[in-house]
Amino acid sequence: MLQPQNVMDQQNQLYQSQRPLPETSSTSTDSTAQTGHATGGDWQEEVFQKIKFMKEMYLPELSEMYQKIATKLQQLDSLPQQPKSEQLEKLKMFRTILERLISVLQISKSSISPGLKDKLLLYEKQMVSVINTNRPRKPVSSLHQRTAPTAAPPT
Fold first, then answer.
1. Cβ count within 10 A of residue 140
2. Is 26 helix (H, G, I), strand (E, B) or coil?
3. C-alpha to C-alpha distance for 93 and 13, rounded to whole angstroms
4. 102-141, pLDDT tens digit by residue?
5. Are 123 and 15 spatial neighbours (Cβ–Cβ below 8 Å)?
6. Could you cite one Gene Ontology molecular function of this protein (predicted)?
7. What are the sequence ranges of the domains in the chain?
8. CA separation (Å) from 74 to 17, 69, 77, 130?
9. Which segments within the chain are labelled E, that is strand?
10. Buried/exposed 12-23: b ≥16 CB within 10 Å, e otherwise
């Protein structure tokens, strides 16, 4: 379950981008300026529908990965001899990333902020990357390994 460095870099980049945005004064901007839309709830509904779609697409696999990681961590914790701390830390970091991604998919409509709207594409890219990177490789079936039958020589 170790991840290639580029996935770790993406996850760290996304983690850095999740820092809270500086608060703006309500007297300096109105809701139209903050959201870019004249009607405040439209963007929120649009983002909610996108999250709903992403939830259907990605939550089952992310949840399964999370369960596997959590089980693996429980097993490692119960061992009398602790495994390499680097491997343990990577598993814990991966579990935290999965928790964060799953929490994005379970957010309520009223909790969707403009900041989440801006980061949704990054979250989706990370979900796809995590799923593709950690999806079990399907073994090549024996059908693909066979050569095409040769034609019988004419008689």
1. 8
2. coil
3. 14
4. 999 999 999 999 999 899 999 999 999 999 998 776 665 5
5. no
6. transcription coactivator activity
7. 42-134
8. 30, 9, 5, 21
9. none
10. eebeeeeeeeee
Name the pLDDT band for 75 (thresholds 50, 70, 90): confident
Would the pTM count as exceeding 0.90?
A: no
**Alpha-carbon gap, residue 20 to 33, rounded angstroms:** 19
Top pLDDT among 44 and 137 is at 44
Query: With bands split at pLDDT 50, 70 and 90, how would you rate the model's confidence at 143?
Result: very low
Q: At which residue do the structure tokens 């703006």 appear?
A: 24
Name every residue whose Cβ is closer than 8 Å to that of residue 132 and which is 6 or more positions away in sequence.
none
The arithmetic mean of pLDDT across residues 2-14, rounded, is 46
Q: What is the dihedral of CA 37, 39, 42, 47, to 10 degrees?
A: 50
CB distance 112 to 44 below 8 Å: yes
The CA distance from 136 to 151, in Å, is 37
Tokens standing for residue 21:
């945005």
